[in-house]
Design brief:
Elements lengths: L10 E2 L6 H12 L3 H6 L11 H17 L1 E4 L3 H7 L42 E6 L9 H16 L9 H19 L8 E8 L8 H12 L5 E5 L5 H5 L4 E9 L6 E9 L4
Parallel strand pairs: 4-5
Antiparallel strand pairs: 1-2, 2-3, 3-4, 5-7, 6-7
Pfam families: Acetyltransf_1
Organism: Penicillium brevicompactum
InterPro entries: Acyl_CoA_acyltransferase, GNAT_dom, Trichothecene_AcTrans
Length: 271
């Protein structure tokens, strides 16, 4: 791969047999993320053998598929061939600074495809995007998935057993407050939300983080988009792509000294 800036092609996830590959990449990339560690104090890291956590992650991805957009790249093996490692990239690996190697652990059978296989290797990159209100097309498959999830959440709810409920509530409240702040500065009818962007930990030092960000900015058609950066060292990475810090958010559970801080960043789009 030459030094020319490039985009990484991403594809929408609409079939359930791709969900395990996406879930594995999410787990490996975020197991040591500061936000996840704060939400799950004293809990074991996200791991394949924890069936309840994997059921929750699988369900979470389904919910994003029903309300937003899930994208994936080619698998890790294909990405490694197409984008060979050549020294240290100037672009940091987003969301994967603390590297976790879970590649030898097995996925529970309940999360595999109907043929009880993992349907290929992990996704090389994963993105969760939420378009502005009213942009989602409610196709028949999307409506069916939403109805299925409503029934599953009622009959068989899924939970991340390691997460502390109070801290999850604090996070959601802070997110809503940040969104309201941004809506005073940007029209809500064209403001996108980038919830997750990550590159697989095994694909470091290839410039893929930048390639994924270029694809995202093209995908939102020059409209405003915001994200929540959980690592201070990645703030500069996003600033290089035109994002600005809109707010610094601190979160702490009452009576606890464990403080977490993240940065709400927004790309104003093209004027």
């Amino acid at each position: 791969m030459s030094s020319t800036k490039f985009k990484v092609d991403l594809f929408p996830v609409r079939e359930k047999h791709y969900i395990p590959a996406v879930a594995r990449t999410i787990h490996k990339s975020f197991s040591s993320d500061p936000l996840i560690r704060w939400l799950r104090p004293n809990a074991v890291p996200w791991a394949h053998q924890n069936t309840s956590t994997w059921n929750w992650q699988y369900r979470r991805i389904q919910h994003v598929m029903s309300k937003g957009e899930v994208f994936r790249s080619m698998g890790v093996e294909q990405m490694a061939v197409q984008y060979p490692q050549k020294g240290l990239s100037q672009e940091p690996a987003i969301a994967t600074s603390d590297r976790v190697n879970l590649s030898d652990q097995k996925l529970p059978a309940s999360l595999c495809g109907e043929d009880n296989s993992n349907f290929g290797d992990d996704a090389g990159a994963v993105v969760f995007l939420f378009p502005p209100p009213g942009r989602i097309t409610w196709s028949i498959p999307r409506i069916c998935l939403a109805c299925k999830l409503w029934l599953l959440d009622w009959l068989k709810p899924a939970h991340d057993s390691g997460a502390r409920e109070k801290r999850v509530e604090i996070l959601l409240d802070k997110h809503e407050a940040s969104l309201k702040l941004l809506q005073t500065r940007y029209p809500s009818d064209n403001l996108w939300y980038l919830e997750v962007v990550t590159v697989h930990p095994s694909l470091q030092s290839r410039g893929l983080g930048g390639g994924v960000m270029r694809w995202i900015l093209d995908h939102v058609y020059g409209e405003p988009i915001y994200l929540e950066c959980t690592r201070k060292e990645n703030v500069g990475f996003y600033e290089n792509f035109g994002f600005e810090v809109a707010e610094e958010v601190e979160m702490a559970e009452e009576g606890q000294e464990d403080l977490f801080k993240h940065w709400v960043m927004v790309h104003p789009g093209k004027s």
